[in-house]
């Protein structure tokens, strides 16, 4: 019986140590490591809450209702994450204290809670157990310190992202669309100003979101302050504008448009990789895209009527536009569907969820 009891204690101790180690590793990889690690604990936590919030949002509800519900998802998931770590730490050390001889289980739980929360109203007997209590207190304080530094980092990255997204409304309307941006620049300023005023800042923006939205994936779900704005529909608008300039608008070629397009689709692909969104890594120019030739011709007609200079060969313009769009088409639509982006032309309006709602309507 003693051997059986000893084996049971060793197994419980090992289980508790494993829970503690997994929790600490999850916290470090989520908060400290500047890389897109997919820890099991964090991934399961966010996915379970996402399912709950999607259920509450409901596919048959109005967009306003779904937007209000989903706006709470990322902040709630982020605030509950340290709570999950604390609970797991308490469970892990409860197992450890029980395995070292603190009985019954309720007493081991009280000892664990007293140590983790640094309340200190329980002192376990023996130097070894006291050292365990000190270790748990240090880990608990470390988790709190990590979250204190984590939240400002998240909201700092969010503020940087939203600054350009908010400015885009003045240039491209709400929801943003490439035709509106081109017409406004042509009428109010000059198409030559579009590249330095829009294209160059957004190239830097894409670099920033690739780093921040892969290191801190919860940022993907943070919604803009205005319900009709979204970082992903804004990204789609800017990429489509650059693709139209390179393929259809009769202006001198500017290599900064090419660099923006490459920077943009690479950033979106890296973010999509984290969520398992499928896309062709090396698409050909003739691969199908979600924008039809009829939609492209309608846009060209609108631009021509508004006085925007266009190239003469419309067929070649379509082939060139499709050749650029194919690089980011799948990831753009996939990310719009993932975050339940607000309606916007040529991006969220072709997401699977949007098409299902349109058929029901």
β-strand number: 0
Count of spatially separate domains: 2
Biggest sheet character: none
Q: Which structural class is indicated by helix and strand composition?
A: mainly alpha
Shape label: elongated
Please provide a written account of the structure.
- It is a single chain.
- The protein has helices spanning 2-32, 40-57, 63-99, 105-116, 127-172, 178-188, 191-215, 231-247, 255-274, 293-305, 314-325, 329-339, 352-360.
- The chain has 361 residues and is mainly alpha-helical.
- It has 2 domains: 2-148, no CATH class; 173-360, no CATH class.
- The chain is elongated, with a radius of gyration of 26 Å.
Summarize the structure in short.
It is built from 13 helices and no strands.
Fold topology:
Layout: H1 2-32, H2 40-57, H3 63-99, H4 105-116, H5 127-172, H6 178-188, H7 191-215, H8 231-247, H9 255-274, H10 293-305, H11 314-325, H12 329-339, H13 352-360
Helix pairs in contact: 1-3, 1-5, 2-3, 3-4, 3-5, 4-5, 5-7, 5-8, 6-8, 7-9, 8-9, 8-11, 9-12
Labels describing this entry:
elongated, 2 domains, 361 residues, 13 helices, mainly alpha
